[in-house]
Design brief:
Structural class: mainly alpha
Strand content: under 5%
Number of strands: 0
Oligomer: single chain
Largest sheet: none
Length: 67
């Protein structure tokens, strides 16, 4: 079995990956899984009230039917 060696570049890459994971989780906890505030004017109170989210869901539904 090959041993795992942790040299400086490997540690740096692992720290960067961990930092990006923390930022992703932080963003999901603050904004939720619906990110329609970026596309709807004035934000929205969830994916149900956002036309951009509705059109994305419709497109995904059509793509699923085609397969």
């Amino acid at each position: 079995m090959q041993e795992i060696s942790l040299n400086f570049p490997t540690v740096i890459i692992l720290v960067v990956i961990a930092a990006l994971a923390v930022l992703a989780v932080r963003r999901m906890t603050r904004r939720g899984l619906c990110d329609c505030g970026d596309h709807c004017e004035g934000g929205c109170s969830g994916c149900e009230g956002c036309a951009a989210a509705e059109s994305m869901a419709a497109a995904m539904g059509e793509a699923a039917k085609d397969k």
